[in-house]
Amino acid sequence: MHTVITLLANDLGPSLKSGLGSIGYGLAAIGPGIGIGMIVGNSVQAMARQPEMSGTVRTTMFLGIAFAEALALIGFVLTFI
Amino acid sequence: MSDAQEIFPPVEDVESQIARDLARRAALVTPLVALVIGLWRGPDAALAVVFALGLLVGNFLLSAWILGYVARQNPGLLMGVTLFSFVFRLILITVIGLGIKELDLVDWPVFCITLIIGYFVLLVWEMRSVSFSLASPGLKPKPKEIWE
């Protein structure tokens, strides 16, 4: 049994690691996707309610999107480091 | 004139302003960080810092250009374009990152760590600046008011 596990680990090790990394990266991109959707959705609503404030809303929205994207970037880095 | 343009008044290109400001800060910081890291870990690490900060600035500028263009042209498309831009830029960053890794040009761990730390440092620095001046110019304390 131990030999079989060792053989599987040696044969599948790199590809398994790569596959799990890709799945992890995909999972890490879900959170920012939801976050960006919420940020932009609420920003569009705010701009529709108060069009005169759209400059301020877009500024805050852009920074919010950038912060949400940082999570995806962390996922990328952790996958390949 | 479309309905969207009637509802939303013309506004300045705030996204590009933020991205340009961020790029300016990155340009100030990059040589110093590259020098320090280069002295510590060698020229590969210095190159990694330059590549990572360049990738970050490129990502910000591209994001700002896409969002600013859509917000000015047709705000109704903002939602969809933002999400597709996120996916597109994520793919672009992955391809460029993997290309850099495959070419073995730079110190990979330094590249990854600079990517994360640089992103947060530049963003927090910019957010601090925006909260003081760009978004709310009236809130920025003037020296005259402080001493009065």
Automatic annotation (TrEMBL), chain A:
<keyword id="KW-1003">Cell membrane</keyword>
<keyword id="KW-0446">Lipid-binding</keyword>
<comment type="function">
    <text>F(1)F(0) ATP synthase produces ATP from ADP in the presence of a proton or sodium gradient. F-type ATPases consist of two structural domains, F(1) containing the extramembraneous catalytic core and F(0) containing the membrane proton channel, linked together by a central stalk and a peripheral stalk. During catalysis, ATP synthesis in the catalytic domain of F(1) is coupled via a rotary mechanism of the central stalk subunits to proton translocation.</text>
</comment>
<keyword id="KW-0472">Membrane</keyword>
<dbReference type="InterPro" id="IPR000454">
    <property type="entry name" value="ATP_synth_F0_csu"/>
</dbReference>
<dbReference type="InterPro" id="IPR020537">
    <property type="entry name" value="ATP_synth_F0_csu_DDCD_BS"/>
</dbReference>
<protein>
    <submittedName>
        <fullName>Unannotated protein</fullName>
    </submittedName>
</protein>
<dbReference type="InterPro" id="IPR005953">
    <property type="entry name" value="ATP_synth_csu_bac/chlpt"/>
</dbReference>
<dbReference type="GO" id="GO:0015078">
    <property type="term" value="F:proton transmembrane transporter activity"/>
</dbReference>
<keyword id="KW-0813">Transport</keyword>
<keyword id="KW-0375">Hydrogen ion transport</keyword>
<dbReference type="GO" id="GO:0005886">
    <property type="term" value="C:plasma membrane"/>
</dbReference>
<keyword id="KW-0066">ATP synthesis</keyword>
<feature type="domain" description="V-ATPase proteolipid subunit C-like">
    <location>
        <begin position="23"/>
        <end position="81"/>
    </location>
</feature>
<dbReference type="InterPro" id="IPR035921">
    <property type="entry name" value="F/V-ATP_Csub_sf"/>
</dbReference>
<dbReference type="GO" id="GO:0033177">
    <property type="term" value="C:proton-transporting two-sector ATPase complex, proton-transporting domain"/>
</dbReference>
<dbReference type="Pfam" id="PF00137">
    <property type="entry name" value="ATP-synt_C"/>
</dbReference>
<keyword id="KW-0406">Ion transport</keyword>
<keyword id="KW-0138">CF(0)</keyword>
<feature type="transmembrane region" description="Helical">
    <location>
        <begin position="61"/>
        <end position="80"/>
    </location>
</feature>
<keyword id="KW-0812">Transmembrane</keyword>
<dbReference type="GO" id="GO:0045259">
    <property type="term" value="C:proton-transporting ATP synthase complex"/>
</dbReference>
TrEMBL record, chain B:
<protein>
    <submittedName>
        <fullName>Unannotated protein</fullName>
    </submittedName>
</protein>
<feature type="transmembrane region" description="Helical">
    <location>
        <begin position="46"/>
        <end position="70"/>
    </location>
</feature>
<feature type="transmembrane region" description="Helical">
    <location>
        <begin position="77"/>
        <end position="100"/>
    </location>
</feature>
<keyword id="KW-0472">Membrane</keyword>
<keyword id="KW-0812">Transmembrane</keyword>
<keyword id="KW-1133">Transmembrane helix</keyword>
<feature type="transmembrane region" description="Helical">
    <location>
        <begin position="106"/>
        <end position="125"/>
    </location>
</feature>
